[in-house]
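assembly run, all chains below
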Amino acid sequence: MTLTESDKKLITEWLGMCWHERKSEHTFLKSWDYSICAKCGKSVNFQYFNFPSFSPDDWNTLYLIKEKIARDGKWKNFYIWARHQFCKDFVTVCSRDDMEANFNCWLIQPINFFPLVAEAIKEGMM
Ligand SMILES: [Zn+2]
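ok done. output:
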């Protein structure tokens, strides 16, 4: 699974945050690359671009997403659906307990979790 730029935008806006957009290519301080966001009007450092980063160690965003899914009462459905996706990709002959443990370890990796969340939003689950 890969996370595209449009997936990142989708999740960011689903979290209620702004996916900042430049008003124009012009910037006053090119080295720092600050500009005003065309949507929210905030001063944004486009060198580091948008928050969240969705990097493999972006645990803060994983936490925010998990909290929102739970708050919306959708964790159980998401979990069952995600486990189904896991089983499609990793057909194993191990015991049920092993499968559950392996799945949990896999799910909480940002590199797996973020694309799953994007897919779940696109499928209208959340
Ligand atoms: Zn913005």
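The radius of gyration is 18 Å.

The chain has two domains: 1-17+54-126, 18-51.

not gonna interpret more than that til we talk
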